[in-house]
User: Fold Probable multidrug resistance protein NorM from Qiania dongpingensis.
Amino acid sequence: MEDTPIVKLLWKLSPPVMLALLIQSVYNIVDSYFVSRYSEAGLTALSIIFPIQLLMTALATGTGTGINILISRMDGTGETKSQTDFVKSGLFLGLLNYLIFAFLGLLFIKSYYSVSSDQTLVQEQGIQYAQIVFVGSFGLFIESNCTKILQAKGNMVTPMIAQVTGAVINVIFDPILIFGMFGMPELGVAGAAIATIAGQIVAMMITFAAVCQIYHFQGKVQVQNCIQIYRAGIPSIIMQSLYTLYIAGLNLMLKLFTEDAVTVLGIYYKLQTFFFIPLMGLQQVILPIISFNYGAGRKERVRDTLKYSTLFSCGIMFVAVVIFMAIPERLLSIFSDRDSIIHIGCPALRIISGSFIPAGLVMMFTVYFQGIDRGKASIFITVLRQIVLLVPLAWIFHYAGLRYVWFTFVVTELIATIASLILYKKNKASRASQRSR
Assistant:
């Protein structure tokens, strides 16, 4: 973290994290693929529940990020004695988050589907899927915290192994349980949910065992530590939660045109996963690097980390733009070959891809601000993107027609990029002023 050249460090640490996250994203994608072969209503049901699953992931990974930041900073300053207390407090928060989310999810899921869809079959299948996922989500919440703890200690391989194992279990059992193969009952969307939570629980067991080997759980759960974890992780929680809220808002807006547009948006988010997830992996890698070197006073390494991560993100997003522009119909046909989906989806994918490169830049800046203890700047950019700009602009553009709604993504990311650069320059000028005093 302290002496290895930044480029070499990124090349070493990024691939395992990116692969682990890509595999983790397979859960929803594989569910959607097999469910789409089972029922069109089921595919729509999973598109509607997708924002809620993102909200669960936001709370889980955001809390884990808080633990990650604190452990990395303590390593940077040489403080290691109190880490066990933070680890134990973090795992307690994982269990607490699960209980709260499961309770609220089971309480409000019927109301959520009644607002999101007018089709009875979509509502029934969606509620069935969601209830199972909520009850079994303890695997997701605890595994996320364990993964972040291991990553803070430089262990990127064990989380990758856990995610690969969980994803393989999900891929194997999805068709078996959905279609009733090898003597198993045909469970439909419920089978997809069971396969998902089974994979998550296995991944949790692997990462939890690895954490136990490091810390042996001699620490104590302390309220003050829990508060510090949430304080450090709140920018990530807010960033990902707002992402969820704006998707839910877009779903309701697109429903004004047709539920096929809602399905297209759901398919888009599954497709862009293959490119945005690597960026999220890059975020997870640079966060402890920035936090460690910021704590150690190595400011030049902090700047280099931002520089090279933005270059990497632009490269990944350029590839994404080319693919989305060139073969949108083939991408859409993975999940649906209905003419209405292809007709709406092809221009949507091409237009939205124009936002990819600026989005990649913004994602790196938000983590940079978080790593240098400028959480307010990180939150500001996130709120600007996903609340102040995206949903209101979509509402304005929808008066011009469905096609123009997709331009919301491009305009939003361009403005957010400009705002990020302004905040970066202001922070740089502020630090220069402090040094000159």
About this structure: Residues 40-77 form the longest helix (38 residues). Residues 45 and 134 are 15 Å apart (CA to CA). The chain has 16 helices and no strands. The mean pLDDT is 85.
